[in-house]
Structure to design on (163 residues):
């Protein structure tokens, strides 16, 4: 299978993750929120995507507690799919998250091998503006040196209630 077909397959999966919340009938439940985001992330460079926050049972209007998160983004040099836990400290406190991240690179990634897949973790802070740092290991694709990379990102997230 060619790399272009594999990349299109992964892109379709990310799009499915982002679109599924809009397709389910009924009213949104408490603690369900979609965040659309634009960011600059190493190694995929500029990217856009979405993250769905799913109620974990102790989220009360996002004033404190935890929520399960799933999402993905597509960028200039690759894409990422993530899942993990979002922590809400309160309405006026920064929000932190812990994510497992799968990154697929293609042409010209920053600080990583081209056409490779990395698996790792990430810690982020912020709700509207998000900063993140992480670590990933290359599990497939050609190596251009070290099989481990340090990831980082900065971006903006727009909360959108699900319809």
């Amino acid at each position: 299978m060619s790399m272009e077909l594999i990349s299109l397959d992964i892109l379709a999966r990310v799009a499915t993750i982002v679109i599924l919340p809009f397709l389910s009938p009924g009213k949104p439940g408490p603690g369900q929120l979609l965040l659309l985001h634009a960011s600059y992330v190493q190694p995929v460079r500029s990217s856009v995507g979405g993250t769905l926050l799913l109620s974990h049972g102790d989220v009360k209007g996002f004033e404190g507690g935890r929520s399960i998160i799933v999402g993905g983004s597509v960028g200039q040099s690759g894409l990422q799919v993530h899942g993990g836990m979002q922590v809400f400290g309160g309405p006026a406190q920064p929000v932190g998250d812990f994510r497992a991240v799968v990154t697929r690179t293609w042409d010209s990634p920053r600080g990583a091998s081209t056409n490779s897949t990395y698996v790792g973790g990430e810690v982020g802070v912020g709700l509207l503006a998000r900063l993140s740092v992480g670590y990933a290991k290359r599990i497939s694709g050609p190596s251009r040196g070290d099989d481990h990379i340090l990831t980082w990102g900065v971006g903006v997230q727009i909360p959108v209630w699900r319809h």
User: Anything to note?
Assistant: The beta strands are 33-42, 45-55, 65-75, 78-88, 95-105, 117-125, 129-140, 148-160.
